[in-house]
Q: What sequence folds into this?
């Protein structure tokens, strides 16, 4: 299986990697807006927009975010904090047990990571952070909770070796065809 080698979308999907070694060069406003805009093209449950995106560019605030995020191994020069607005979720009539809003965080994040890759930015998702501390740092109102941070920056020339794919799992190892 190596179909679509010439297809730009498939090539982007296959070449995107989390990049954790970044330069100190800032992300331009235009590039950050391109990444933010891409999120609205992601599929969302009920086609509702129950999320809020906080774009962080101030170096002091980025440093503070890093201090409350053990999983933020990179030093990003910009970040997008994807939040669920639980007031909107309730207003739409979703039960709080409905996984849709969380799944939407993933679709939006994946789309932003690919958009960043497409314009030559380095990116990486982070969920290992203190939600309460991030909410306080960003001054979020109570029903708006941070769920995932997309770190952004420019890739450094030297990169650590990529994490090994565990057990060499291929797509066929994790796919069931029809009824098992
Ligand atoms: C939901 C989610 C949470 C993640 N949280 C972190 C994190 O806190 N810190 C981190 O360095 N990477 C995090 N990652 C990135 C994964 O470690 C990374 O995607 C995985 O190692 C595969 O690497 P690749 O995307 O370059 O193929 C997260 C990824 C996802 C999807």
A:
């Amino acid at each position: 299986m190596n179909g679509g080698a010439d297809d730009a979308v498939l090539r982007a999907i296959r070449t995107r990697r989390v990049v954790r070694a970044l330069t100190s060069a800032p992300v331009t406003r235009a590039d950050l807006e391109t990444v933010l805009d891409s999120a609205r093209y992601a599929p969302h449950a009920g086609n509702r927009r129950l999320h809020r995106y906080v774009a962080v560019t101030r170096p002091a605030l980025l440093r503070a975010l890093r201090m409350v995020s053990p999983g933020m191994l990179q030093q990003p020069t910009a970040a997008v904090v994807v939040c669920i607005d639980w007031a909107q979720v309730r207003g739409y009539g979703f039960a709080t047990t409905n996984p849709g809003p969380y799944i939407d965080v993933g679709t939006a994040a994946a789309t932003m990571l690919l958009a960043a890759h497409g314009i030559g930015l380095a990116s990486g998702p982070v969920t290992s952070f203190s939600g309460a501390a991030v909410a306080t740092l960003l001054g979020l109102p109570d029903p708006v909770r941070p769920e995932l941070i997309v770190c952004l920056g420019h890739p450094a020339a030297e990169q650590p070796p990529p994490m090994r794919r565990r057990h060499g799992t291929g797509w066929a190892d994790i796919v069931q065809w029809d009824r098992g």
The longest strand covers residues 144-153. The chain has one domain: 18-155.
